[in-house]
Design brief:
The complex is a heterodimer of chains A (73) and B (159).
Chain A: H1 5-13, H2 18-25, H3 29-37, H4 44-54, H5 58-62, H6 66-72
Helix pairs in contact in A: 2-3
Chain B: H1 10-41, H2 46-70, H3 82-108, H4 111-148
Helix pairs in contact in B: 1-2, 3-4
The chains are: A mainly alpha (73), B mainly alpha (159).
């Protein structure tokens, strides 16, 4: 699993720290960090909660092109 | 606010489950090792000395067995077929035979008697275990068929 740059960018656009995003979503900062680092694969429920807070769609934050997925393998 | 509400998020919950998983296997093999060591070094009244550990070990094993079969899970790598059941039973039979051979030899110092004793227990353990595993794998297969059946299809689960 690669790093999730899209979340980091969306967070930066809204001028939010990892801690602020974590509090808004109701998770720990270490979980936000793990998602951004690609170390944790969140459930669809958590993905939706992050999207809602960052006002983005699932595609914006979590969609990966087929080439990217294959490169990770 | 509910004091007993889960304070962990999903990643922490998964990590805790992993920690608990490791703890259970540590307890399982720790109890198993304790029982074997007590059987080997115990002088008298071995049954009484291992009773506590044995009860906990059996409860743990029984729970895991029942929960796995109920959920249609057998093993990560092994398949419930006669060949695998025979291999597992054979390994357990040989291990039991060797332990009892060593124990009996320690008491009697007769290699022939100890070998016969060990072989008998080895064969007995193999037979009993193979029978139990065959019954369990048949129960497992029946359960999986029930779980996998499409309720909409004929022969599926009742609505």
């Amino acid at each position: 699993m690669g790093r999730n740059i899209a979340i980091k960018v969306a967070r930066a656009q809204r001028d939010m720290t990892q801690k602020e995003l974590a509090e808004a979503v109701g998770i720990s900062r270490q979980t936000v960090n793990a998602i951004e680092q690609g170390e944790y694969n969140p459930t669809i429920k958590l993905c939706r909660a992050i999207c809602r807070v960052l006002e983005k769609t699932l595609d914006d934050l979590f969609w990966e092109e087929k080439d990217d997925e294959q490169m990770e393998k | 606010m509910n004091r007993w509400k889960n304070k962990l998020d999903e990643m922490q919950e998964q990590k805790l489950l992993k920690i608990e998983h490791n703890g259970v296997w540590l307890a399982f093999w720790g109890l198993f090792a304790t029982i074997i060591i007590q059987i080997i070094i115990g002088k008298e009244n071995i049954l009484r000395s291992i009773a506590g550990e044995w009860i906990v070990f059996m409860l743990l094993s029984g729970y895991m067995l029942a929960a796995c079969i109920k959920n249609g899970i057998w093993d990560r790598r092994l398949s419930p077929n006669p060949k695998t059941n025979a291999s597992v039973s054979l390994i357990a039979g040989i291990a039991t035979g060797l332990i009892l051979f060593a124990l009996f030899y320690g008491n009697s110092h007769s290699i022939t008697l100890s070998a016969v004793f060990g072989l008998c227990f080895s064969a007995g353990t193999f037979a009993v275990l193979f029978l139990v595993m065959s019954i369990l794998s048949s129960l497992y297969k029946r359960r999986v068929n029930k779980l996998e059946a499409d309720p909409g299809e004929p022969g599926g689960r009742k609505k």
